[in-house]
Amino acid sequence: MSRPLSAVADAGEAVPSTDSVPALRRTVLILDLVSASSTPLNAADITRALKLPKSTAHGLLNVMQELNLLARNPDGTFRLGPHPMRWANSFLSEMDVLSVFREYFAKDTALASYTLTLTILDGPEVVYIGCRNSDQPLGHTFRIGMRLPSPFTATGKMLLSELPDAELDLLFADRFPEPMTQHGVASLAALREELSATKNRGYSIDDGQIREGMVCVGAAVRDHSGKAIAGLAASLLHSEATDQAIATLGENIRDTAQNLSRQLGHHGV
């Protein structure tokens, strides 16, 4: 249901005068206003609704058209441009993988004894978007929305192993995160060695890098193009994580990730 024009206008008044990035906030307000309005808006409508200086509004609208954030109709009113659809498609693909994760493990019980997590890569961190906790206590609780440094997590290592070297360098150009435990990888050079081993195995291992006494094994979930869009991991206690147990779980989690990927349209190996 469309929000009334006045409600979006009120949001414009909430922008503090000391805001260090007013152009960005105003851009988002304009996008919200155009998308929420039940009737097409022209430049004067937008300027008046958000109480913007005319020169500021026209400057923003021109740039937003150049970037395809907005498109101008023949009568001078605005509609959303094609560029936001790229973001929407990315968001929807993440939601697709989450739906597949939930549906798959609602039926498949082969990994029922393990805590299972699904993450996406967001800069140098992973964000947990899916979780199925087992009855086995791990001493660590995974939560939806949790963020952890990607170099220490099984899913993060798997997703990082997919990145080109230059992109990996850029990701940690400012600083490398402090290890969470004494087992955490301590430098980008050391991480590269782990990522090389991950590629060779086809699955990743976090051996006590998130929490002492917990081992996680991860694999990549791919979309129809073969791009790794999420990481799937299973967690177990270190006391149970023999070399053979890790190898068997690694193969299982890799096969499971491939099954999820096939449901997302990926037919490669």
Automatic annotation (TrEMBL):
Transmembrane segments: none annotated. Residues 21-82 form the HTH iclR-type domain. Residues 83-266 form the IclR-ED domain. GO terms for biological process: negative regulation of DNA-templated transcription. The keyword Transcription applies. Keywords: DNA-binding, Transcription, Transcription regulation. InterPro entries: GAF-like_dom_sf, HTH_MetabolicPath_Reg, Tscrpt_reg_IclR_C, Tscrpt_reg_IclR_N, WH-like_DNA-bd_sf, WH_DNA-bd_sf. GO terms for molecular function: DNA binding; DNA-binding transcription factor activity. PROSITE patterns: HTH_ICLR, ICLR_ED. PANTHER family: HELIX-TURN-HELIX TRANSCRIPTIONAL REGULATOR, ICLR FAMILY, HTH-TYPE TRANSCRIPTIONAL REGULATOR RV1719. This is Transcriptional regulator, IclR family. It comes from Roseibium suaedae. The lineage of its organism: Bacteria, Pseudomonadati, Pseudomonadota, Alphaproteobacteria, Hyphomicrobiales.
